[in-house]
Amino acid sequence: MKFNIWVQKHQNQMTAAIAILIVISLISDYLLKLPMISTPAMIIASIIGAIPVFLHAWTALMNKVISIELLVTIAVIGAFVIGEYEESAVVTFLFLFGSYLEQRTLQKTRSSVKNLTKMAPTTAEVVDEDGNIETVDVDDVDEGDHVIVKPGGQIPVDGKIIEGKGYMNEASITGESTPVEKTIGDKVFAGSLTDNGTITIETTSVGEDTTFGKIIELVEEAQDSASPAARFIDKFATYYTPAVLIIGILVWIFTQDFPLAITVLVLGCPGALVIGAPVSNVAGIGNGAKNGILMKGGNAVNTFSKVDTLVLDKTGTLTTGQMSVTKLSHFGTDKESDMALLSAVEGTSDHPLGRAIVKYIEAENVTATKDLPELDTVKGQGLQSNDGDILVGNERLMKANNVEISKDARQAMNDRVNQGDSIVLLAVNKELKLVVGVNDQLRPDAFEGLTALKKAGIKRVVMLTGDNKLAAQHVADRLPVDEVHAELLPEQKVDFVKKFTDEGHHVAFVGDGINDSPSLATADIGIGMGTGTDVAIETADVVLVKSSFDALAHAYVLAKKTVANTKENIIIAVGTVALLLLGLLVGVIHMASGMFVHEFSILVVIFNAMRLLRIKTFNKSPKLDVNQVETA
To answer: Which residues cross the membrane (predicted)?
Structure first.
């Protein structure tokens, strides 16, 4: 057992030693003409090379598996017996060198996970009730603890900001290198970096329970899980290896040509076939992880590549879930003064519509009115001053206070309603001054992303939403959406997904991972489009931590190319073995040359798989400004 462990630990050094011995032998034989050095060097190289191969074969036999190493062991022993020391040494070297290249490739394709693991925070600065700061191991931080992070520091926990603000680099979580501004109340994730600003975080999750921890775990599990092609190859190899052994025995029985039988065993080793599928799977999933896309294993990749129908939720998926002003219309003489008053009134409320209006007016460089009378809330209608001179709210508030709505103002209101907007009105002294349309903001990359998905193979795009028909149709009209079904409950969305699958379509459902969990689980592929929400990570087959349609398009293209790459590798591997055996029959291939071609085919499938690492994110044209704000 100890010897086996030692050999595994030093296998690369043994491979290097074999290479040196082979070079010494060849120089001694062909240049120095010293057979007394060249032959012993090849014998020693053969013995050294046979040891790790034999140990692997023996371990497999103990587990009742007839492995490729058994074929190589028999071939090496046979070559050694007939005095072909050069062939036996070269065979073992090429086999071990192929194994070394395989390990190096897998290490490289798993680099995204390793980089994430290295970036995992290990300590945290916890603030106690007295304001004292203590540096502790991250595993000792509890839920509810307050953690302080200084400029340039790494956020050690998941939580929400309770003090301070700054720009966070969330590349390790979302794959997006552009810093994101975060302030009080915003969520932050372990593994992120603070570009500037000192913040205090209230802890919600630590260690493996953080979004960062779950991402690492998911990618590791995904890269280790086998695709359908890989499972087929594993099953195929179980029968293929004994079949080659039997063929080799039959060749020896019928031809009495022992070297030929040994050559059949060597050339029949399906090394490229065995490595081809796993290396494609790992490379494809690794590329996704690097770009904020978590595909949960080879099965998810394979199924996603077949999708022809894309079903999407609206709010939080096609839209950002953040309200913004779509149009502001003014009916009065002093627009800036009226906007300043509206900003001051809405600044007293936490309503999403109010926050969107305040943000819009601030962007117009208008300062909110400072002297504001006391306001009362009218339930379901809006806000009004005690004397009734200032009214901010919906049309019901205006009617209740006998505010006259002119023909032009009515037209502006109808235009916004027809666009699916919510309406906020400002009246001063019974005179309507402002009509503001507010709506959920369409994702700026939705048009280009959906267009790219259709070009890549998606046949139908369907929107399912619980929102009203006007709002849903308005969003669909600005996007390449084929069908719209509105005013749906979550269970009705599931019914539509089932209907599409029953019709024989391969369906992917894209949702925010919260109220869409049933549909995510029902579809052939569930795609969670949210910033690493717990439900999305648990429920979806593909998680777009970087919540964008660019990432969705990249994920779909990557899935198709990964499956295609796997098939290419299978064809290369099987084709190589077939050509080698054919060359052996016609006498143009021998053991050494055949083994060289065989190992070269392993290099070909490895480099073919590594092309997946170079696939870049969706390269789009400039974004269509679908949310352009107009001002009348």
So the answer is: 12-31, 37-58, 65-83, 89-106, 236-254, 260-286, 570-589, 595-613
What six digits make up the tokens of 502?
Answer: 């029953």
Residue 408, pLDDT > 80, answer yes
Q: Per-residue DSSP letters for 13-38?
A: HHHHHHHHHHHHHHIIIIIS--HHHH
SS3 171: helix
Selection from 130-139, 523-532, 552-561, 571-580 with the highest mean pLDDT:
552-561
At 495, which amino acid appears? D
CA 38, 39, 45: angle at the middle one, nearest 5? 90
Confidence at 481, pLDDT banded by 50, 70, 90: very high
**Alpha-carbon distances of 406 from 394, 432, 436, rounded to whole Å:** 15, 8, 15
Q: What are the backbone angles phi and psi of residue 350, rounded to the nearest 5°?
A: -100, 10
Residue range 322-347: mean pLDDT, rounded: 91
Active-site positions read 313
- pLDDT tens, position by position, 138-154: 888 988 999 999 888 88
Residue 171: φ, ψ to 5°: -60, -35
- For the record, the structure tokens of 579 come out as 């050509």
Helix and strand numbers (H, E) in the chain are 23, 23
- From the list 242, 229, 236, 247, the residue with the least C-alpha distance to 67 is 242
Tokens describing residue 619: 């390269």
At residue 160, the 3 state secondary structure works out as strand
The model carries a pTM of: 0.65
Calculate ∠ Cα 370-373-378, nearest 5°. Answer: 120
Q: Beta 507-511 vs 525-529: how paired, if at all?
A: parallel
447-470 pLDDT, tens per residue? 999 999 999 999 999 999 877 787
For residues 372 and 365, is the Cβ–Cβ distance under 8 A?
no
* Helix 228-255, helix 68-81: angle, nearest 10: 30
